[in-house]
């Protein structure tokens, strides 16, 4: 390498050089490209376009000029960044759906709200809009500073006079390096009114300003939901608002509803919006839409959405708000350039900076006018001197050999300066007439008054403020218009998922192999006990329905697994399938761990979390009571609900109010009842205490809340059931072995389930082969504790009852609802009433005497598909009274309630 080459190579610190270069680049983008100036609200490209058009003379009173000519002139003189960038910026300034007050008057295709692009610049024409002239007014009066252009051959303005508050009325959006800006447009009249408030009261608060300027006013209209986000943005410079389309719901004579969209949110592409709605309807993600049409024309926007007669327009609309740009979020980020640096601004700061800019503009304009007036008055003073000595001046001019000598003699003889002498030399002879003398005197006197006025303005800041006030008032009168965007008073809740789903009572089924689905509750018809039932779910030979839950699409569902974990879902999140469909694997819905099985599903109302408890019962008889508040936040991968001992698993969970009596039933037909207050409130990680002392090989099969004046219903595996008054189940201490609640024989089999009813419910039974039957609780005879019960469902030899659930009763609409054979007319029962006297408390005397069939046992009961579906068992329990729960005595012979809590 020779010495000359070596001199051109410089060794630098690379990290430091990169840092400096990137900072230089970042500041260039921030200051000279992406962010608007707080004074005129313009980015450099927009400022250069307006100034270039003004220099070209394409003002509102002149013919349109080709866009290509305008773009070429701006690019060649001021903005060397490519013609497409300049043209796109100019196009946007001409779009009335992008700018609240367009600054360019476009002629030709300048795009549409449907997202159509503008025609090529060689086809379109443009000129300044009328309101844009207010941005440039007084620019030639030394009101702003100029700087050299990119190559030093031209001069361009640093900022425009901007006699309108452009930053607020047209807003701004831009992405710089490390920062962005997003300022919404506002109504011109409202902004000027806010400026007037601030001028009258410099200490005005944001609330004071919002009396005149309540919020944004978007060019496409729409509805802003609530004002708290606006106030937060105005006070801090950052905030969020919800912007919705303006819609109308019409109801036709036939009862069908129609949604009509008249306005859409700001910056939403109408064509893509319509396409999105059509896509959602086509994919059945939004049900109920029958017809979708875009009927927009030059008269205005109109999108019509016809709704199916059996569908709520409100639900459809909420779905569209959630899934389409019919509702959008607008994020305020009011960043602008202040004194050459970016700054986050409040509403008041933006207004203050604008007023300061106008004070500077008015001051500089007044000084310019003063200088000009003084210069003209000075010339007129010379002319008046000439008219006073007209004969001497004429004689001097006639005798002077040339103009220079004449000027010198005028200056010397009449005490004039060079400019005055030149003005006399340039004066036409006609000005020597008497009429012209009067005009000169009049003009001179007017100038003297103007000069005095200008000096007074410059000496009194309050006069400058008054000029600004009046000029803004004039602009308000000439360009002000009505607000387009509606502002809803008060807060509007955001759309929750429930708002998108029509509330419907449903039945959820969960199979032994873990398939879950949702069915409308109205699909299940009432039948007499003993019926064959209807097929409730299509199952394979190795699967059967294990859980059935009466619920609602809006209920909160807690899924408790046999391993003691809990998962959370809403009713509508369970996919709906036909009655014969398998459903969806619950592992795909909840993400449960391998080896887990859903043991219990209950409904929990979120607003009851502060006053209710979850009562846990395990297979081995351990119980625990925990506040629902412990389960307010459940992760997607579940939460540990109870700490289980080795070999144990969760059997059931009950929702209580903290003062209920609990009954626990076992497989061998025993039950124990005690107050839940015998179990103190424990944490989520606790193991619990003993609730029932089980006999060998026995285990817990069911549990419920024991209500006074209610009945305990038990169902055996072979389809036998009975109901017994709860008064026959004494409240004793927890941890006892229990008393016999059913006489278990080979005919009826061990217990499959236990629940508490009040006699008004219907029961749903499911077998391990997927057969389902529904019958009224009152169809089952009331018997004693030790009775065997009556047949409630006919089973094949290889079938057994797997699950049962309570549902609310429904009225008969007169249609034949029997989908199966008639009942057999009766069953085996035991005598009603308490156990025989003298029997042990834990072992009751039973008989096998057949009971007389019920009155309707020999004929099928007509059922109905009813419009009102079932309430879930949890809601029944919460609504019933809990009176007289402490009447039963504690069993002093059981010492197991002294067990230590195992937490």
Automatic annotation (TrEMBL):
This enzyme's EC code(s): 5.6.2.2
Main location (coarse class): cytoplasm
Record flagged with keyword Transmembrane: no
Active-site positions on this chain: 123 (o-(5'-phospho-dna)-tyrosine intermediate)
Any one biological process term the GO annotation gives: DNA-templated DNA replication
Keyword hit for ATP-binding: yes
Note: Few gyrases are as efficient as E.coli at forming negative supercoils. Not all organisms have 2 type II topoisomerases; in organisms with a single type II topoisomerase this enzyme also has to decatenate newly replicated chromosomes.
The protein's name in its UniProt record: DNA gyrase subunit A
Organism: Schleiferilactobacillus shenzhenensis LY-73
Encoding gene per record: gyrA
């Amino acid at each position: 390498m020779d010495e000359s080459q070596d001199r051109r190579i410089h060794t630098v610190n690379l990290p430091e050089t990169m840092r400096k270069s990137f900072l230089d680049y970042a500041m260039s983008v921030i200051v000279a490209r992406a962010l608007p100036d707080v004074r005129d609200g313009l980015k450099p490209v927009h400022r250069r376009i307006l100034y270039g058009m003004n220099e070209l003379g394409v003002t509102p009173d002149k013919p349109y000029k080709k866009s290509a000519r305008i773009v070429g002139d701006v690019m060649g003189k001021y903005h060397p960044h490519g013609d497409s960038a300049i043209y796109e910026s100019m196009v946007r300034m001409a779009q009335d759906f992008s700018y609240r007050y367009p600054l360019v008057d476009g002629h030709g295709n300048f795009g549409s709200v449907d997202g159509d692009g503008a025609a090529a610049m060689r086809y379109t024409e443009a000129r300044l809009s009328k309101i844009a002239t207010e941005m440039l007014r007084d620019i030639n009066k030394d009101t702003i500073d100029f700087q050299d252009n990119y190559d030093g051959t031209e001069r361009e303005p640093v900022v425009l006079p901007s006699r309108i508050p452009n930053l607020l009325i047209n807003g701004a959006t831009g992405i710089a390096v490390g920062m962005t800006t997003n300022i919404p447009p506002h109504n011109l009249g409202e902004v000027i009114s806010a400026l007037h408030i601030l001028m009258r009261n410099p200490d005005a608060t944001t609330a004071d300003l919002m009396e005149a300027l309540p919020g944004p006013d978007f060019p496409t209209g729409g509805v802003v939901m609530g004002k708290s986000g606006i106030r937060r943005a105005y006070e801090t410079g950052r905030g969020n608002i919800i912007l919705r389309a303006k819609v109308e719901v019409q109801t036709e004579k036939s009862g069908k509803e129609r949604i009509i969209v008249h306005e859409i949110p700001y910056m939403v592409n109408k064509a893509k919006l319509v396409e999105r709605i059509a896509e959602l309807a086509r994919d059945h993600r939004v049900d109920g839409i029958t017809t979708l049409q875009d009927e927009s024309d030059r008269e205005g926007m109109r999108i019509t959405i016809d709704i199916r007669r059996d569908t709520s327009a409100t639900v459809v609309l909420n779905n569209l708000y959630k899934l389409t740009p019919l509702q959008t979020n607008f994020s305020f980020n009011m960043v602008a350039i202040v004194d050459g640096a970016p700054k986050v601004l409040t509403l008041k700061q933006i207004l203050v900076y604008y007023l300061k800019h106008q004070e500077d503009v008015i001051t500089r304009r007044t000084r310019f006018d003063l200088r000009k007036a003084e210069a003209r008055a000075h010339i007129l003073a010379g002319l008046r001197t000439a008219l006073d000595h007209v004969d001497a001046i004429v004689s001097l001019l006639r005798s002077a050999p040339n103009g220079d000598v004449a000027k010198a003699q005028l200056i010397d003889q009449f005490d004039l300066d060079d400019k005055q002498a030149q003005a006399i030399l340039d004066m036409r002879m006609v000005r020597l007439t008497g009429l012209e003398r009067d005009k000169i005197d009049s003009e001179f006197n007017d100038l003297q008054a103007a000069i005095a006025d200008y000096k007074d303005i410059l000496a009194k800041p309050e006069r400058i403020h008054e000029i600004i006030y009046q000029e803004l008032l004039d602009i308000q009168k000439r360009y002000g218009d009505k607000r387009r965007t509606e502002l809803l008073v008060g807060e509007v809740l955001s759309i929750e998922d429930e708002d998108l789903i029509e509330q419907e009572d449903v039945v959820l089924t969960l199979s032994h192999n873990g398939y879950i689905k949702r069915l409308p509750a109205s699909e299940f018809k009432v039948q007499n006990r003993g019926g064959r039932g209807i097929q409730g779910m299509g199952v394979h030979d190795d699967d059967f329905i294990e859980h059935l839950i009466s619920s609602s699409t809006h209920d909160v569902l807690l899924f408790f697994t046999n391993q003691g974990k809990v998962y959370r879902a809403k009713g509508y999140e369970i996919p709906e399938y036909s009655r014969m469909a398998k459903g969806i694997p619950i592992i795909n819905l909840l993400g449960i761990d391998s080896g887990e099985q859903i043991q219990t599903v209950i409904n929990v109302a979120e607003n009851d979390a502060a006053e209710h408890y979850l009562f846990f019962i395990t297979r081995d008889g351990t119980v625990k009571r925990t506040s629902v508040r412990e389960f307010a936040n459940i992760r997607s991968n579940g939460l540990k609900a109870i700490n289980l001992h080795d070999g144990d698993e969760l059997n059931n969970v009950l929702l209580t109010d903290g003062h209920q009596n609990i009954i626990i039933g076992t497989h061998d037909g025993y039950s124990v009842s005690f107050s839940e207050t015998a179990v103190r409130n424990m944490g989520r990680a606790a193991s619990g205490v003993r609730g029932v002392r089980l006999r060998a090989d026995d285990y817990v099969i069911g549990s419920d809340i024991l209500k006074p004046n209610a009945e305990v219903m038990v169902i055996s595996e072979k389809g036998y059931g009975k109901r017994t008054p709860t008064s026959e189940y004494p409240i004793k201490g927890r941890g006892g072995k229990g008393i016999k609640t059913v006489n278990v024989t080979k005919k009826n089999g061990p217990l499959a389930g236990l629940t508490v009813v009040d006699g008004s419910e219907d029961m749903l039974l499911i077998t391990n082969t997927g057969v389902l039957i529904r019958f009224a609780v009152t169809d089952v005879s009331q018997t004693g504790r030790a009775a065997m019960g009556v047949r409630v469902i006919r089973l094949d030899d290889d079938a057994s009852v797997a699950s049962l659930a309570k549902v609310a009763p429904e009225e008969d609409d007169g249609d034949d609802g029997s989908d199966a054979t008639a009942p057999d007319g009766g069953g085996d029962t035991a005598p009603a009433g308490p156990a025989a006297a003298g029997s042990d408390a834990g072992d009751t005397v039973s008989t096998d005497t057949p009971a007389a069939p019920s009155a309707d046992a020999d004929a099928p009961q007509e059922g109905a598909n009813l419009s009102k579906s079932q309430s879930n068992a949890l809601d029944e329990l919460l609504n019933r009274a809990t009176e007289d729960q402490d009447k039963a005595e504690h069993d002093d012979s059981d010492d197991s309630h002294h067990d230590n809590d195992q937490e």
